[in-house]
Amino acid sequence: MKYRAVFFDVDGTLVDSNDMHVLAWEEAFRSIEADFDRATIHGQIGKGKDMLVPTLIPDADAGLIEKLGEAHGAVFKPDLLEQVRPFPGAHDLLARVHAAGQTVVLASSASAEEVGHYLDLLDARDLVQATTSSGDVEHTKPAPDIFAAALKKVAPLSAEEVLVVGDSPYDVEAASKCGIATIALLSGKFPEETLREAGAIAIYDDVAALLAEYDRSPLGR
User: Fold this and answer.
1) Across the strands, what pairs with 164?
2) Most distant CA pair in the chain: distance in Å?
3) Could you tell me if 62 and 51 are in contact, meaning their C-beta atoms sit under 8 angstroms apart?
4) 76-114 CB burial, b ≥16 within 10 A, e <16
């Protein structure tokens, strides 16, 4: 088996949370009377506040970025996080990868608290060998920091022995900067063409479709 570890993005990949992040960011921007349509905001989901805010508000300074990040969290954590559900097949895919002897890593830039919540939501504490969180990185995707941090946690494995599973072009770009290939899923609602242009080596509808094709997918080769 070529790939000895699999780094899973979480939001939009394992759990159905992208639309909820859109709603939280919409409210955050409204707090400063900035109005962006949901499609525009969705196009930036997968980035953290450090990358998302400056893309939409190019002159945002560090104080404004922090303020908006806090406003997003103030909506998402108390009101929306508990509504997030795993995608069908998410736990089973993690279990299949684990059973194959591949190291399972959740490569997220969410807070450690949120990552812990998702581990429980996915019933995956016995399946996941390592995680990343916002405390491990300086910059979020599409910067390579998250996957670079994950690589350190599976040392001495090389980038060529690792595969990323994600849903956004920013997952693909960040992984590529570390020399890691990516399987992309359409569950995050990014266009297939966008994911392919970013460099995804394979594309599936969702985790259930990837699980069904595990043996024939890059995961199982």
Assistant:
1) 7, 182
2) 52
3) no
4) beeebbeebebbebbbebbbbbbebebbbbbbbbbeeeb
On the question of a cis peptide bond just before residue 191, with omega within 30 degrees of 0, the verdict is no
* pLDDT over 90, % of the chain: 96
Pair 34, 41: CB distance under 8 Å: no
Question: What is the CA angle 23-64-30, rounded to 5?
Answer: 35
How far apart are alpha carbons 221 and 217 in whole angstroms?
A: 7
Q: Which one-letter amino acid corresponds to residue 170?
A: Y
Angle between helices 169-177 and 145-153 (to 10 degrees): 60
Contact, 209 vs 178, CB < 8 A?
A: no
Amino acid at residue number 155: A
Counting as low any pLDDT under 50, the low residues of the chain are none
The pLDDT of residue 134 is 87
The DSSP annotation for 136-174 comes to G-SS-TTSSHHHHHHHHHTTT--GGGEEEEESSHHHHHH
pLDDT at 211: 98
Provide the pLDDT for residue 77: 93
